[in-house]
Amino acid sequence: MTSVTYLQQTDPSQLRPAGRADLTITRVFPSDPSFYARMYREIGGDWGWGDRLDWTDGRWAAYCADPAVTTFRARHGDEVVGYAELRMSPTVDQADRDGVDVELVYLGLLPHRTGNGIGGWFLSEITRIAWQAPGCRRVWLHTCDDDSPAAIPNYVSRGFTVYDRAETGCVTCTA
After folding, report:
1. Are the beta carbons of 43 and 94 closer than 8 angstroms?
2. For residue 102, which of 9, 38, 3, 166 has the smallest C-alpha distance?
3. Alpha-carbon torsion (63, 55, 165, 130), positive or negative
4. How do 79-92 and 98-109 pair as beta strands?
5. Which of 68, 111, 138, 155 is such that its CA lies 20 to 30 A from the CA of 99?
């Protein structure tokens, strides 16, 4: 069984950006289910991502059309090198004020682009974008032991803090 680690930022001032990388990050709009499915398979293959491998084209299309889901594309020049997914969830705080939690569901680089120093800036920019969601109260994510060994150090270096751990296995890492 693997450990699941939950990390968060609860204030935008906690973001510690990495140095600028030669990437262009754009929102994928309109949604492009084939892009998302390809990135999920190519990036997640090395890390055991399996929760969406059996999704049909129709399920990908329905998921990508959800207004709570936003997908981003990272490019180096003309080459697509990675993607990220943010998911907005309405929240109400103890004072009954509405807000939004933004989950960083997936973020990854294609295997041949890892280890080149661009992941920190990619994470920094996606986190900055997440904090721009109206009413954002926190940005959070979860990862497991099967993820890249660089993942948690990158999250912590960008200002995320661990708020929980569970020994529940990777099946709970997936939505």
Report:
1. no
2. 9
3. negative
4. antiparallel
5. 155
Q: How far apart are CA 119 and CA 19, in angstroms?
A: 10
Average pLDDT over residues 25-46: 87
- Residues 100 and 118: their CA atoms lie apart, in Å, by 28
Cα 10 to its chain centre, rounded Å, is 16
* Residue in 121, 128, 105, 126 with CA at minimum distance from that of residue 27: 126
On the question of pLDDT at 96 being above 80, the answer is: no
pLDDT, average across residues 55-75: 91
d(CA 21, CA 55): 33
